[in-house]
């Protein structure tokens, strides 16, 4: 079984999403001996923003001079995603969405003919069978019932994106309200720990 571990927080050391994604991976590794884990840190090795050259290269055009490294990194990112059975993503909320580093990675995965295609009935995702686990961290609270729920363009984006690729098996380990004082923060971290234990036991 192949596990792809993605981190995208720009914070190191005291990042909650990094801590939670690492705990999810450790729990799954304990549960599945022989698990092959590949880690990609998008904050330390970011992919460039999508350009016309990337789109052309995805359809087989040669890389323009100077962009070979970034194009190869994007192709490797896609290959790693395609090879993964499980993808664990550390995804903080930044400005109501995902970090731009994570968005740049998503942009390299949505490749027509490889991860999705359009048919007469509309889009068809080609990645069914994979499992995605999102380790989500947020300063505020956006879960269902919150007055701010409509401002969640982080988890909602990831759910829509991977659903578009045909992945229905998406779980979230969520720590939210982290900036709302020590009691809420402690409760959020405890709730995330409980969710990790639940996922590991499933
Ligand atoms: C650049 C930046 C933007 C943020 N934007 C939001 C936001 O829009 N909504 C929110 O609830 N929290 C926001 N936060 C708080 C983070 O979601 C929170 O600190 C979270 O723990 C970050 O994940 P990390 O600890 O893995 O870095 C922001 C934090 C940073 C650094």
Biggest β-sheet strands, sense, barrel: 5 strands, parallel
Bound small molecules, deduplicated: flavin mononucleotide
Query: Unreliable runs, pLDDT <50, ≥5 residues?
Result: none
Number of strands: 7
Q: Specify the CATH homologous superfamily.
A: Flavodoxin domain
At the first level of CATH, what is the class?
Answer: Alpha Beta
User: Helix- and strand-based class?
Assistant: alpha/beta
Distance between the termini: 16 Å
- Indicate the overall shape: globular
Approximate strand percentage: 15-25%
CATH architecture call: 3-Layer(aba) Sandwich
- In N-to-C order, the SSE pattern is EHEHHEHEEEHEH
Give average pLDDT, whole number: 96
* Strand line-up across the major sheet: 2-1-3-6-7
Radius of gyration: 17 Å
Q: How many separate helices?
A: 6
Helix coverage percent: 25-40%
Number of structurally distinct domains: 1
Question: In CATH terms, what is the fold-level topology?
Answer: Rossmann fold
Task: Report on this structure.
With 202 residues, the protein is an alpha/beta fold. It has a single domain, classed as Flavodoxin domain (Rossmann fold), CATH 3.40.50.360. The protein is built from 6 helices and 7 strands, in the order E-H-E-H-H-E-H-E-E-E-H-E-H. It has helices at 16-31, 52-58, 68-83, 100-109, 155-164, 182-201, and strands at 2-7, 36-41, 86-92, 116-119, 122-125, 131-137, 169-175. The chain has a 5-stranded parallel beta sheet, sandwiched between helices. Helix 1 (16-31) runs parallel beside helix 6. The structure holds flavin mononucleotide (FMN). Flavin mononucleotide binds at residues 9, 11, 15-18, 92-96, 137-140, 178-179.
């Amino acid at each position: 079984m192949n596990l792809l571990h993605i981190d995208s927080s720009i914070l190191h050391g005291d990042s909650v999403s990094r801590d939670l994604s690492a705990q999810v991976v450790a729990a799954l590794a304990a549960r599945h001996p022989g698990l092959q884990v590949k880690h990609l840190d998008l904050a330390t090795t970011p992919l460039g923003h999508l350009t016309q050259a990337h789109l052309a290269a995805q359809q087989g055009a040669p890389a323009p001079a100077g962009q070979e490294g970034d194009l190869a990194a994007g192709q490797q990112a896609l290959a790693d995603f395609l090879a993964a059975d499980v993808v664990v993503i550390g995804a903080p909320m930044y400005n109501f969405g995902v970090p731009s580093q994570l968005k740049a990675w998503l942009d390299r995965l949505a490749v027509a003919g490889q991860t999705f295609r359009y048919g007469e009935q509309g889009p068809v995702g080609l990645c069914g069978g994979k499992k995605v686990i999102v380790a989500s961290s947020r300063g505020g609270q956006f879960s269902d019932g919150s007055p701010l729920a409509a401002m969640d363009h982080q988890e909602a984006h990831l759910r829509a994106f991977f659903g578009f690729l045909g992945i229905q098996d998406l779980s979230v380990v969520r720590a939210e309200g982290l900036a709302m004082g020590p009691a809420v923060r402690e409760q959020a971290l405890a709730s995330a720990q409980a969710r990790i234990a639940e996922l590991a036991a499933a």
